[in-house]
TrEMBL record:
Organism: Roseateles depolymerans
Gene3D superfamilies, per database record: 3.40.630.30
This protein's name: GCN5 family acetyltransferase
Molecular function GO labels: acyltransferase activity, transferring groups other than amino-acyl groups
Keyword Oxidoreductase: no
Pfam family, one: Acetyltransf_1
Length: 144
């Protein structure tokens, strides 16, 4: 090992370096596949100047990947989460997506997703102590 090499750990690794590692891993993965067409996708709902709900993720390989879906706590239970998801789905369908994937650690969210047409493809009990990770998929057009 060169005398100039040194390991840095934890707080010694700046956020920009962590971001670069993430970009490099994603780039490497995409180079292994054919036809990556990744595009960010987002929706936000405002009430005047206040953000009350939103979601974002990406579309890639004809799939909507929902990374985040959020409703402000005092506005939950009014159907806004489902509305946000339907907005993302509509955009994804216009982009040619044939299915959508969402992951959640919350049982009540997985039940909501099932109500909206998603099917649990896998779950990992105690993924985080006391929580199950649900991997949900909604198919609009079956893949060959």
């Amino acid at each position: 090992m060169s005398a100039d090499r040194q390991w840095r750990r934890d707080e010694e690794v700046p956020a920009a370096v962590r971001d670069e590692i993430q970009r490099a891993v994603v780039l490497h993965g995409r180079q292994q596949t054919q036809g990556s067409d990744a595009r960010d996708i987002a929706v936000a709902l405002w009430d005047g100047d206040e953000l009350i709900a939103g979601g974002w993720g990406r579309t890639e390989f004809q799939r909507l990947y929902v990374s985040y879906l959020w409703v402000r706590e005092d506005r939950r239970g009014q159907g806004l989460g489902g509305d946000c998801l339907r907005q993302l789905e509509a955009q994804a369908l216009r982009r040619g997506c044939v299915d959508a994937m969402v992951e959640t650690l919350l049982d009540d969210v997985s039940e909501l997703l099932e109500h909206l047409g998603y099917v649990c493809m896998a779950h990992i009990h105690d993924y985080v102590p006391g929580f199950t990770r649900h991997i949900m998929l909604k198919v609009w057009t079956p893949r060959d």
